[in-house]
Write a structure and sequence with these properties.
By secondary structure, the chain is of the alpha/beta class. The protein contains 17 helices and 29 strands. Strand 17 and strand 18 form a beta hairpin.
Length: about 600
C-alpha cells in the first residue's frame, strides 16, 4: 500500500531559506554581531555610558517624548546628572538600592538612569500590586532611598505602617501634574536637585556591563513575587540586539513603548531599542487600545514594542480605513500568537516582526533576527528542549537518569545551560534561585536553568513558544502566581481550600485565572461580592480570577500537592462540569453565574476579555 507522506509543518523553518537569510545577516551585520558577543568580555559599556555617548553625539535630538513634552538627549542627560550628583551627596554608592514606585513618566527614566550611573540598583515596584504583595516587595529589597510618585502617594501612605522602614531610609516625593501636596515626612526630589551640577559624574566609568542595574519582580511559586537581578548587560545587550541589529533604529526613529516600566519588556527591550541607536523613546502612562494608533501617529513612531495580548486587542478593534495609516516599519516584542501573525502584519502594513523570548530572570534569550513567521527566533546560547510529562508535571528522565531532547517538530521544556556568560544570576532569595536549577541534565555535574515554559523545536535552531508550566500562568502580558492568588483565597473566611490555575478562553492570549473553591459552608451562603472585593484589595487586576468553580473537595497528591491537571483540562466547560460555575465578565466588578448563554457567547468571542 502506498504511504501518503504527511504534509510539512508550515511552522517549521525551511533549511534552504534559513541558510540564505543567515548568510545575508552576517554579511550585513557581522561586526555588530561580534560586538554583541564581546560585550560581557570587554565589560566596559553600561547604561550610563550609552546615555552620555548619545548626549555628546546627538545633543539636540529628542530622547524622550511623553504626552505633550519632549527632552533632548542633552536635556535628559543634564537632568540625570543633577539627580546623580544629589544622590552621591547623600552617600549613595555602588551596590546600594533605591526603590522606585512611580507610573510611566519621564521622571522615572531620569531617576533610574541617575541611579544606574552611580552603580546603584533600582528596585522597580509593580504599581499594580496591592496589599500584602506590595508590602512584601517593598520589604524584600529595602532601599537606602524610596522614591514615590505623587500619583501613588496615597497607596504608599496606606501601607506605610506595615513596612520595615528604618530611621536611616529617606523618603522622596516626585510630583506629577496632579499638584498633590507633599506629605510632611517626604522630601520633594524635584526641588532639592536644583542647583546641582549637570556634568557627568565620575562614577559612570566605574560601572561595568556585568554589574546589577535593577531588581524586577516576577511571579513566585511561594505565593509572593521574586526579585530577579537584572544586570547592565540586559539593557545594553538588548539595545544592541533589538535596536541596532533587529529594528535597525537610527537617530530619526521613534520607538513607542506602551508597556509599564516595571515590566521587563519595556525596560530591557523597548527603551534600549531606542537609546542604543540614538533614537527617541515615546512613552505613555498606560496602554489604551482605543488611543494606541492615535499615539503612534502623534509621536510619529516608526517602531513599537508589544506583548502578544496587545496585538490581540488591536486586532479585536473594528477595521478602519486608517489601519495602514502609520509609519511603523518594525515591531519588537513577545507573545504574538501564530493564528493572528500574518493577519496582523497585513492589516497594519508591518514589514518586520521582531518576536523574541526572554524574561527578567532568564540567562539567555531567543530573537527572530531572520524575520521568519511564527517563531520566537534563535538563541546563540546553549539551550535544550527536553521531553516533558504534562501529567506528572516534570521532565522525563531515561534509564540512565538523564533528560532527552525532543525531535524537530516536538514540544518540550526549554532549558538554558547555567554556565559562563549565561550563568543564572538568580533572585535575591537563594532558595528561589536553587529551585530554578536542574542538575545532572545530560552529564554528571551539569547545571541548567529551568525556564518553566513549553516550546516547539522548529529546526534550524529556532523555536516557538507554546505555554507556561507549573505554578504560574500568563495573562494580560503578566505572569500570575497561582500560589499568590490561593493565599488570598485561603484566608477568606468562607473558603476551606482552593486551587488556582490558568484556562484558555477562545481567541485570547495566555490563560485566564480560574479558582476551584471548597467553601466552608454552603454555596448558597457564599458572599461572592465580598470575595471580589477581597481580590481587588490584594491582587493586581490581571491576577484576579475570571472564573470560579465550587467543589465539595479537591484531590491532592501523596506529597500534598493539589492535582490541577484534570481541572485545567475541564476549564469552564459546562458540558464536562456539573459544579456551580461563576464568571466575572469584562467591565463587571462582581461574579455572575456562568449560564449556557454566557458560555456560548464566550466561545463565540462576544466578550472582549
Amino acid at each position: 500500500m502506498l504511504e501518503i507522506p504527511k504534509p510539512k509543518d508550515p511552522e517549521l523553518i525551511d533549511k534552504k531559506e534559513y541558510r540564505k537569510r543567515r548568510m545575508a545577516l552576517f554579511r550585513k551585520h557581522g561586526p555588530l554581531i561580534q560586538e554583541i558577543l564581546d560585550l560581557t568580555i570587554v565589560n566596559e559599556v553600561s547604561w550610563g555610558t550609552i546615555v552620555e555617548s548619545n548626549a555628546k553625539e546627538y545633543p539636540n535630538n529628542i530622547a524622550v517624548k511623553f504626552e505633550d513634552t519632549t527632552l533632548t538627549y542633552k536635556e535628559f542627560n543634564d537632568s540625570v546628572n543633577q539627580y546623580a550628583h544629589y544622590f552621591i551627596s547623600l552617600g549613595l554608592k555602588k551596590g546600594d538600592v533605591v526603590e522606585i514606585m512611580m507610573s510611566n513618566r519621564t521622571e522615572l527614566l531620569i531617576i533610574f538612569t541617575a541611579i544606574a550611573k552611580i552603580g546603584a540598583i533600582s528596585s522597580i515596584i509593580n504599581i499594580d500590586l496591592r496589599g500584602d504583595g506590595l508590602i512584601y516587595c517593598l520589604n524584600k529589597t529595602p532601599g537606602k532611598f524610596i522614591v514615590v510618585g505623587s500619583e501613588l502617594i496615597d497607596i504608599f501612605i496606606d501601607i506605610k505602617p506595615e513596612l520595615d522602614l528604618s530611621k536611616d531610609q529617606i523618603l522622596f516625593f516626585s510630583p506629577d501634574w496632579d499638584a498633590i501636596p507633599k506629605p510632611d515626612e517626604f522630601i520633594d526630589i524635584s526641588q532639592v536637585i536644583k542647583g546641582f551640577p549637570t556634568d557627568d559624574p565620575p562614577t559612570t566609568n566605574n560601572v561595568k556591563t556585568k554589574d546589577p542595574i535593577a531588581y524586577l519582580f516576577t511571579s513566585g511559586t511561594t505565593g509572593l513575587p521574586k526579585a530577579a537581578i537584572v544586570i547592565h548587560y540586559r539593557l545594553v545587550g538588548g539595545g544592541y540586539l533589538f535596536g541596532r541589529l533587529m529594528a535597525e533604529t537610527r537617530p530619526n526613529d521613534t520607538v513607542y513603548v506602551p508597556l509599564p516600566f516595571f515590566h521587563g519588556t519595556a525596560i530591557m527591550v523597548g527603551w534600549p531599542t531606542a537609546f542604543a541607536g540614538g533614537a527617541t523613546v515615546a512613552i505613555c502612562r498606560k496602554f489604551s487600545v482605543s488611543r494606541f494608533w492615535e499615539d503612534v501617529r502623534k509621536f510619529k513612531a516608526t517602531v513599537f514594542i508589544y506583548v502578544g495580548e496587545l496585538c490581540r486587542y488591536l486586532m479585536n478593534q473594528p477595521l478602519t480605513p486608517d489601519d495602514k495609516n502609520n509609519q511603523i516599519r518594525a515591531v519588537i516584542g513577545n507573545g504574538l500568537r501564530p493564528e493572528i501573525w500574518k493577519d496582523f502584519k497585513e492589516r497594519f502594513d508591518i514589514d518586520y516582526i521582531g518576536e523574541f523570548y526572554g524574561a527578567s530572570e532568564n540567562p539567555a534569550a531567543f530573537a527572530n533576527m531572520l524575520n521568519f513567521d511564527y517563531t520566537m527566533g534563535t538563541c546563540s546560547s546553549n539551550y535544550a528542549i527536553v521531553k516533558y510529562d504534562t501529567e506528572e508535571e516534570k521532565p522525563i528522565r531515561n534509564e540512565e537518569d538523564f533528560l532527552e531532547k525532543v525531535d524537530v517538530g516536538g514540544i518540550g521544556l526549554l532549558l538554558f545551560e547555567s554556565k559562563g556568560v549565561t550563568e543564572f544570576r538568580g533572585y535575591t532569595d537563594n532558595e528561589a534561585t536553587k529551585a530554578k536549577l536542574l542538575h545532572n541534565v545530560f552529564t554528571e555535574g551539569d547545571v541548567w536553568f529551568n525556564s518553566g515554559d513549553l516550546v516547539k523545536d522548529q529546526g534550524c535552531l529556532h523555536a516557538q513558544f507554546i505555554d507556561r508550566l507549573g505554578d504560574t500562568f500568563r495573562w494580560k502580558g503578566h505572569n500570575v502566581s497561582t500560589t499568590e492568588v490561593e493565599q488570598v483565597l485561603n484566608v477568606f473566611d468562607q473558603v476551606l481550600m482552593s486551587a488556582v490555575y490558568g484556562v484558555e478562553i477562545p481567541k485570547t492570549d495566555g490563560r485566564a485565572g480560574m479558582a476551584a473553591i471548597v467553601p466552608s459552608s454552603s454555596i448558597e451562603n457564599f458572599d461572592l461580592k465580598a470575595l471580589a472585593d477581597k481580590f481587588r484589595e490584594n491582587l493586581a487586576p490581571y491576577a484576579i480570577p475570571i472564573f470560579l468553580r465550587f467543589k465539595s473537595n479537591l484531590s491532592i497528591t501523596p506529597t500534598f500537592k493539589l492535582k490541577k491537571v484534570k481541572l485545567k483540562k475541564e476549564g469552564f466547560d459546562l458540558v464536562k462540569i456539573d459544579d456551580p460555575l461563576y464568571v466575572m465578565l469584562p467591565g463587571e466588578s462582581e461574579y455572575t453565574p456562568l449560564t449556557k448563554d454566557i458560555y456560548e457567547n464566550i466561545k463565540k468571542n462576544k466578550y472582549k476579555f
